[in-house]
Design a protein that fits this description.
Helix content: 40-55%
Oligomer: single chain
CATH architecture: Orthogonal Bundle
Structural class: mainly alpha
CATH superfamily: Winged helix-like DNA-binding domain superfamily/Winged helix DNA-binding domain
Number of helices: 3
CATH topology: Arc Repressor Mutant, subunit A
Shape: globular
C-alpha cells in the first residue's frame, strides 16, 4: 500500500498522506508533541491506525535508505 504521495496539484507538492490533504509533516509534528495515535485519530478520523503506522514505517524505511520521498514524474 502507498501511504505517502507527492503531487504538484496537492498542496504544491508537499508530501501528504495518500488520499488526503494532510501533510506528512503534520503527523510527525503531532507525534513530536506527544500525541498518541488515538489522539491523532480523534483529530483526523479519516486516518486509520494502519495508515498512521504505515506512514511512520515508510519514513523509517526511507530514512534507513537515505531517501525520504520520490518526486512525482
Amino acid at each position: 500500500m502507498i501511504y505517502i504521495e507527492q503531487k504538484k496539484t496537492i498542496l504544491g507538492g508537499t508530501p501528504v498522506i495518500t488520499g488526503t490533504r494532510i501533510p506528512v509533516s503534520r503527523l510527525l509534528y503531532l507525534l513530536q508533541q506527544g500525541y498518541s495515535i488515538h489522539d491523532i485519530q480523534t483529530d483526523y478520523p479519516q486516518l486509520t491506525h494502519k495508515t498512521i503506522t504505515g506512514v511512520i514505517g515508510v519514513i523509517a524505511e526511507k530514512a534507513e535508505q537515505g531517501i525520504f520521498f520520490t518526486p512525482e514524474k
